[in-house]
Amino acid sequence: MTEDNEKKMINRINKLYHKKEKEGLSDEEEKEREKLHQEFIKNFRAGFKQDVENLVIIDKNGKEITSEKAKKAQRKKGLRKD
Predict the structure, then answer these.
(1) d(CA 49, CA 9)
(2) CA R_g for the chain
(3) What DSSP assignment string belongs to 38-81?
(4) Do residues 77 and 51 touch, judged by C-beta distance below 8 A?
(5) Can you tell me the mean pLDDT for 61-72?
(6) With contact defined as beta carbons under 8 Å apart, do 70 and 53 qualify?
(7) Is the whole model's pTM more than 0.90, yes or no?
(8) Taking the mean position of all CA atoms in its chain, how far away is CA 68?
């Protein structure tokens, strides 16, 4: 999802939220709000997972202490040579 599309989605979610608080939503608007919310959560989780899987942790002595699970995911994606 592009940054522009994400901003449009967030703006629409917020607009529906404010309308719901002021006057309520029609059934169609409530379905749209739920669909947008689920899509936003799905995209957020995918981005967060990618960030965590790409994370390399180094201790204060300069030694890598990245978990084996993360290393395995990084190798699978071709991000590690070890």
Answers:
(1) 20
(2) 19
(3) HHHHHHHHHHHHHHHHT---B-TTS-B---HHHHHHHHHTT---
(4) no
(5) 93
(6) yes
(7) no
(8) 23
CA neighbor of 53 nearest in space, from 26, 75, 81, 23: 75
Mean pLDDT (the chain, rounded): 93
Please tell me what DSSP assigns to residue 21: H
- Band of residue 1 on the pLDDT scale cut at 50, 70, 90: confident
Query: What does the chain come to in residues?
Result: 82
- Give the tokens for residue 10: 């967030």
Q: Please, is 55 exposed, middle or buried when counting C-beta atoms within 10 Å of its C-beta (0-12, 13-18, 19+)?
A: exposed
Q: What is the SS3 assignment for 25?
A: coil
Question: Each residue of 33-49: pLDDT tens digit?
Answer: 999 999 999 999 999 99
- φ/ψ (deg, to 5) at 72: -60, -45
